[in-house]
Give the backbone structure.
Amino acid sequence: MNKHILLTPLTIGNQTINNRLIVAPMAGVTDNPFRRLAKSFGAGHAISEMIIADTALYARQKSLYRANFTGEIAPISAQVAGAEPDKLAQAVRFQVENGACIVDINMGCPTKKVCRKLSGSALLQDLDLVKKLLDSAVESVANLGVPITLKTRLGFANGQENILTVAKIAENAGISALAIHGRTREDFYTGNARYELIKTVKETTNMPIIVNGDIDTPQKAKWVQEYTGADAVMIGRAGQGRPWIFREIAHYLATGEMLAPPTLGELREIVLNHLDELYQFYGEYSGCRIARKHIAWYTGGLTNANAFREAMYHEETTCGQYKVVDEFFKTTQMSK
């Protein structure tokens, strides 16, 4: 069996990633511990949480956590978002100085908080500004040879999908790779991702195209890549509580067979190791609270999981939280 394209290296500018299974940037999820965990399960690349292009925010603790790449497998990629060309250029340079080998521009985030500032996917309403932002970002590190990538959506509103124009603007600006989520901002995360326009973008541009949206099984990853012809697949929500999805996809592509999910014992070890990493990274107070959503994702579908989570949410210390999680896995069983 020939090696599937998704298992081969991909070049982005002057950087090469080991395979074409990419972790999507997700606010509050793809922090340093999660990115390293996903890569340990076979993801070839992972992009940081979005960092707002505002120098007043750089020194805030949350931004410092998001821009922490300690111990991460290269090449390191940081995502920035902003609506002012000069500030975006500053943010790009800041992340390069901070260790990023690739900088990703966010024009896909659909949240009201981001779109209110005419950032994220709201930018798709102003293509002149899109051009200015991308030109500024690329030019800001052109002398360093740092590749700039872009993550976006099909368009802002249904019936007004303008991804073909955005892709041409990006290519002309010198963007090194384009990731496209198969929804508009209006869709948010509802309905099904649409891949037809992504296929057309791939057929009409020369830069690497990364397809994103609803890729939640090995079979779906294979089908979506082959249908669109995309150079890579990007996986986001399907990796929440299931970082081993990258291992499952790689195994399926290599053998044509489904890999068995982790046993309860393996799951316990994965979760406890992840908790240790979160506690060390964030400290006592934040570590305990940030871990809660990951624990909830990991335990979804297990016997007595709802009652366990209600009790777990009341634990206020990392020691107490770790103990109840450990006890839960020792006494529960698979129900899915």
About this structure: Residues 264-282 form the longest helix (19 residues). The chain has a mean pLDDT of 92. The chain has two domains: 5-255, 264-331. The two ends are 32 Å apart (CA to CA).
